[in-house]
TrEMBL record:
Protein name, per record: Transcriptional regulator, TetR family
GO function term, MF aspect, one: DNA-binding transcription factor activity
InterPro entries named in the record: Homeodomain-like_sf, HTH-type_TetR-like_transc_reg, HTH_TetR
PROSITE patterns: HTH_TETR_2
Organism name: Pseudomonas chlororaphis
Pfam assignment, any one: TetR_N
Length: 233
């Protein structure tokens, strides 16, 4: 009886000893290390910061966009953001360049697929402009407005506008005698495009209404050029 009891006590003690060392062993075994985070390239970091900046503008408005706030939202240090943009004006310029690059890709691809008719080219230009603004939502009107705040930013916007206008001129010129579109007409078209897209982005009019009205504006501009001939450019 005693012997059996001693055996039981010995066994219990032995099990406790084994369990203790097993616990220590398991606790001291290093867990599977999570893979190290891949460091983003400079271009990848730039794209991340731009995406966060667009989200910040969409949620809080352009006024809330500062380099410090962007760093906080992106989960990076301020020097990382300053290394990419230096100033708030530089950030706004980069956002507009990002918007313009996507708009250009969209329109170029659509023009390449379009038929060589005035209606087809006008449809592409109207659709690409309105759709790109609406894809960006209410953020882009605020950025465009902010670009007019300083002469430097206004010049950047002007440069990209000229590129867009020349692209439109090249696409539409074959349908206007004697093969060119006056700058005044292109400027009127751009003003209509901005106003209609802004109205669609704020919900004042629908996407379809904005596209249809801009289409009609483009057709009318080209037809006037065809009737009058080329004006001064």
């Amino acid at each position: 009886m005693i012997e059996g009891g001693n055996q039981a006590l010995y066994t219990f003690g032995k099990l406790r000893t084994v369990s203790y060392f097993w616990y220590i062993s398991m606790s001291s075994t290093p867990s599977e290390a999570s893979p190290p985070r891949r460091r983003l390239s400079r271009e990848e970091r730039l794209q991340q910061l731009l995406e966060v900046a667009w989200q910040l503008i969409g949620a809080e408005g352009t006024e809330a966009l500062t380099l410090g706030r962007l760093a906080e939202q992106a989960g990076v240090t301020k020097p990382v953001v300053y290394d990419h943009f230096v100033t708030r004006a530089g950030l706004l310029a980069a956002l507009y360049q990002d918007f313009d690059a996507r708009q250009t890709l969209l329109m170029d691809a659509a023009l390449d697929r379009s038929e060589a008719t005035l209606a087809s080219r006008a449809t592409v230009i109207a659709g690409a402009y309105v759709d790109c603004v609406l894809t960006q939502g209410r953020e882009i009107p605020g950025v465009i407005a902010a670009l007019a705040s300083t002469p430097e930013l206004a010049r950047i916007k002007e440069e990209y506008e000229l590129i867009f206008l020349e692209k439109c001129r090249a696409a539409l010129a074959p349908f206007a005698a004697p093969g060119t579109i006056a700058t005044a007409g292109l400027r009127a078209m751009l003003g209509a495009a901005e106003a209609l897209s802004h109205a669609a982005a704020t919900g004042e009019i629908s996407r379809e209404q904005a596209r249809d009205e801009l289409f009609d504006t483009i057709i009318a501009m080209v037809e006037r050029s065809a009737r009058r001939g080329a004006g001064p450019v």
